[in-house]
Design a protein that fits this description.
Arc Repressor Mutant, subunit A, three-stranded antiparallel beta sheet, alpha/beta
Length: 418
């Protein structure tokens, strides 16, 4: 038996924020506020707001004791539990779209929930500014009202996106950690059929999408969740790249949306660039196309599996939106190897990748955490250095990145390096 004793835990040192540091951050916030006030373009306003947000986070960190920050980390998952309970109750739907409602009145609209239980949820949602609680005179009774965030959670896409994470992805994370990494080593998965998600489901013969197709309810939830990008704003992406400059192939196809689902993005591109009408092609698995598309009849529909087939449409331009982040590098290389023959010998042929491009240094928390989300299925969110290395390995070179540093996706323009 060992005589060694565990080291006594040490309390954090006394918390005394530096006045100089706080003043520096405060002055920087004021300077960014002034830049926002004088901004003349949407891009300048967005840049100023991003700076204010980053500086405010740093100020909050600088004024928060270690104990508080630790407790926040420890308890953060339970905010998602609270939101999940609220969704189960249809709590957000029960609130009036404008104005407020008393706790008593709200309870009558939610008969399966006791006032005491409802109050417990409400005070958490209010503390995190998801709902607003007030006590207006003269009665000073508790009133609840929406915030912009809770109103957003009313949208089917937002609700589906939240449930997709809570019901499909997060359980696999929790079920596979630490077992998967203790078994396979602490390294990024390389086999799509051997990832934390498949480990949690006890299989090594199917990837995430194979398993999803077998569960109709989860597949429907996942597909609904993917529409969140349309809600968050696909439209700006349509104008991000000069699609009208693309040279069509001999068959008159100027752009092929590979793995484009129902064609949501292709429709946005067609609306932004009317000259592209009749020159667009949508590719996906036959089962996806059979499920219905949202593009008009002028768009060519072609069933295609980018893992199993060489790209059949030659000499065009190829658009991949949110495809590569689903897969590890070796799977991405397989997709690109099936594309390359269709581009070889056509100098005008472009590869367009519409994905999140993380900054090489100091990525924003809300962006970089998405990389851990993708880890469960073997995917990855990449920075520009990683994108460049992946494409070089496949024989491509990057010409330009449109919308770099944007809120969500950028468009990487690449060609074969012939």
């Amino acid at each position: 038996m060992s005589n060694s004793q565990p080291a006594p835990s040490q309390a954090p040192p006394p918390f005394e924020p530096s006045i100089e540091k706080l003043s520096e951050l405060s002055n920087s916030i004021q300077a960014s506020l002034a830049q926002y006030a004088s901004a003349s373009t949407p891009q300048e306003k967005a840049s100023s707001l991003k700076a204010i947000q980053a500086l405010s986070t740093r100020l909050s960190t600088a004024t928060s004791p270690i104990q508080q920050r630790f407790m926040d980390l420890n308890s953060r998952p339970y905010l998602n539990v609270t939101i999940r309970l609220a969704l189960s109750l249809s709590l957000f739907e029960a609130l009036p779209p404008s104005g407020s409602i008393t706790l008593t009145a709200l309870t009558t609209l939610l008969p399966t929930c006791t006032p005491e239980f409802l109050f417990r949820l409400l005070r958490v949602l209010s503390a995190f500014e998801i709902l607003t609680i007030t006590y207006p005179p003269p009665s000073h009774h508790l009133h609840i009202s929406h915030t912009p965030l809770s109103l957003f959670l009313l949208s089917p896409a937002a609700k589906a996106s939240f449930l997709n994470h809570f019901e499909i992805l997060l359980p696999a994370h929790l079920a596979s950690i630490p077992g998967y990494f203790h078994k396979h080593g602490f390294q990024s998965p390389v086999d799509p059929k051997n990832v934390p998600f498949t480990f949690a489901h006890g299989t090594v013969d199917e990837d995430f999408f194979d398993l999803l197709v077998k569960d109709s309810e989860k597949l429907a939830l996942f597909n609904d969740a993917m529409t969140i990008m349309a809600v968050l704003g696909l439209k700006p992406l349509g104008g991000l790249y000069p699609f009208d400059r693309l040279v069509e192939n001999e068959e008159g196809v100027a752009l092929v949306d590979v793995g484009g689902g129902k064609g949501q993005m292709l429709r946005v591109i067609g609306e932004a660039w009317p000259g592209m009408r009749g020159r667009l092609c949508l590719q996906d698995l036959q089962v996806v196309l059979d499920g219905g598309v949202v593009v008009d009849s002028e768009v060519r529909l072609v069933a295609y599996d980018f893992f199993k087939e060489v790209q059949p449409i030659k000499g065009s331009n190829y658009f991949f939106k949110s495809i590569f982040h689903d897969w590890p590098d070796n799977a991405c290389l397989k997709i690109l190897s099936n594309l390359a023959p269709a581009m070889r010998g056509y100098p005008h042929s472009k590869l367009l990748i519409c994905e999140l491009v993380l900054p090489d240094q100091h990525p924003e928390p809300t962006k970089v955490i998405r990389d851990i989300t993708m880890l469960v299925i073997g995917g990855s969110e990449r920075n520009l250095t990683q994108w460049d290395a992946l494409l070089k390995k496949a024989g491509f070179k990057i010409l330009n990145v449109y919308g770099a540093g944007g809120e969500n996706s950028s468009i990487i323009e690449a060609v074969l390096d012939e």
